[in-house]
Structure prediction request, 517 residues.
Amino acid sequence: MEKPYYITTPIYYVNDVPHIGHAYTSLACDVMARFKRLDGYDVMFLTGTDEHGQKVEKSAAAAGIDPQAFTDKVSQNFRELVKALNVSNSDFIRTTEQRHKEACQVLWNELLKRGEIYLGKYAGWYAVRDEAYYGEDELTTTPTGKKIAPSGAECEWVEEPSYFFKLSAWGDRLLKFYDEHPDFILPTSRRNEVISFVKSGMRDLSVSRTALTWGVAVPNEPKHVMYVWLDALTNYLTGVGYPDTNAESYKKYWPADLHMVGKDILRFHAVYWPAFLMAADLPVPKRVFAHGWWTNEGQKISKSVGNVIDPYELLKTYGLDQTRYFLMREVPFGNDGDFSRTTMMRRINSELANDLGNLAQRSLSMIGKNCGAKVPNCGAFTDADNALLGKAQALLGQVRGELDVQAFHKALDHLWLVIGDANRYVDEQAPWALKKTDTARMETVLYVLAETIRYLAILIQPFMPNAMNKMLDQLAVPADERDFTHLTKEYALKPGTPLPAPEGIFPRYVEPESLAT
Ligand code: MSP
Prediction:
């Protein structure tokens, strides 16, 4: 039986057009999901949209349409982005769906029944942009008297009746949980931040609001809607069938293996969420990974600066797989990173067009011309052949080890080291010279190259699925022989198998003159 693997993206606020931050989290999850599928797991991959709360209510009002019509429209943009990025999600959840409202209300009743929620009054600061409460001590005051949260969001004073979750009682149990599950929060630097936040002492958390109506109704309390983060986090349960804890999908996939989030929303996922779950006596997810933020050519990305990076523009300018590759390769996953067009162009040309593209192109065109467009015959292997094949065979273990801790950039490093070795092997073995002196040896060299490319293409599929499918087509690898079980067979390519005419897969990127200054 296949082992289950459940991975989630954050659900995206529908107040905005999709930008590079949304694309980044979704792509990282997609690489993980594709890798796990090829590695024999039964993968559930959930993404979707976060549609309630004050921020969305305000955006709908500003657009002059009712919130449901507004969210229907904007949610669709996120569905389209997922498609455009070739993201292989299993489901797309919207928090305005009935199944989700039910899940929230059942969880609420569970917490209430256990005495974890009580009615009180909230008087304090709230940042609509973050949909978060802040303590006075966390804020700075501008010369004009505005209160600003550490995230830069402006806060407003709120006083209203509210239900509270007894978060203050969960500090010690959370600390014990982090201690017993050292990999629950990655990267480690972020884990330390969370631990010191919890150690510094936590106040009870306001979990209902009366100042707005656009939310999931609190059971038996017509004036209250749920705090949008309690509603939003619950989507991870809804997606696998909660409140039906006997559902096949719930039993199979819960608790989630990985919640992928940006660093700005780690506290909600690594503190509030496990506390809610423990309080409802539900199992806690295995990991929350917080990735960093992108800047644009060194500048913080913001709508007011007007430097928001449009993912569609990237796809159009550089290509889908090129964009996927760059975002996963450029920044050590977990760190902040800078988006620079010069670097993007350099990586496309040197790492994709030259290193990988040329390796495939020159090997396959030599095979096409000199081996009758068939998988070459293969004689006895020399030490050099065994060395290269050995490195290719070691890759699965290395890449798996890196992806186990979401080190996408390091996985790519391993792959590109072997691409470098393979290119050196071509230069050293000089099959074009062997053509005149020893065609049997030339065929063996080209066979070793074809096998190495097969290994590489299979392993690079999670990052660049379309391009690698084309590469595997060119090696005539059958569609059902592209998963990782086919990496243990040393010589899967059968000499004599006819091959299609090779075609370049990664064109060089030439900057339009209008952009080159
Ligand atoms: N709705 C909440 C999540 C609820 S999950 C139960 C939310 N939505 S969001 O649309 O604002 O953000 C979604 C993701 O985009 C977050 O993981 C955030 O970190 C990420 N990014 C937003 N801007 C970003 C960059 N400039 N760079 C990288 N990722 C960033 O938060």
Observations:
- The longest helix spans residues 341-370.
- The mean pLDDT is 96.
- The radius of gyration is 26 Å.
- Residues 10-13, 21-22, 24-25, 50, 232-233, 235, 261-262, 264-265, 293-294, 301 surround 5'-O-[(L-methionyl)-sulphamoyl]adenosine (CB under 6 Å).
